[in-house]
Amino acid sequence: MNVQHYSYRVIWSEEDQEFVGLCAEFPSLSWLDESQLAALEGIVHLVGEVITDMAKNNEQPPAPISQRKFSGHISLRTTPDVHRDLALSAAERGVSINRYINSLVTSRGASA
Question: Does the structure show a pLDDT above 60 at 31?
Answer without folding.
Answer: yes
